[in-house]
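Encode chain A's predicted structure.
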Amino acid sequence: MLVTAVIGLGVVVPAASSDPHPRTVNDLVAAITAKGLGCQDFQPAAPLDTSEGSCTVGHEFGVALDVLASHAALVKQMPKAVKAVCSELKQAKSSVKLVFVVGSNWVATFESAVNARPLAKALSGKLQPLKCS
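Encoded structure for chain A:
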């Protein structure tokens, strides 16, 4: 899944804060749904996968969601994953401008900052555009 590779380079990971600290992607989906932002169409990335999937958040279809075991795991994965996504986008000659909402141990990947803002505000996440060098 593209999202898994997206966590990283150029994205500043906020310090652990009052945002939800989901144990699974289903916990993150529940938090999104509780805030009235959708995600009723959630699909796990693979059967029995509890760490990633996608759903419609607000007005954006196919928002990728990733939940890592801890804040430290998120920080460790970010540089590698963003580098991989940037490489993939460059190779595909894609002009997609991805935007992340980064939480304490989770990331949601959007194609629109306008669509990402409500989730960032609702779950105290940090809005970060993908920056490829």
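The chain has one domain: 2-129.
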